[in-house]
Amino acid sequence: MFPPAFFGGVGAPELVIILFVFSLPVALVLLAGVLHAARSQQSSSDRALEELRIAYARGEMDEAEFERRKQTLESE
Question: In this predicted model, what pLDDT tens digit does every residue of 1-30 receive, in sequence order?
Answer without folding.
Answer: 555 555 566 566 777 888 899 999 999 999
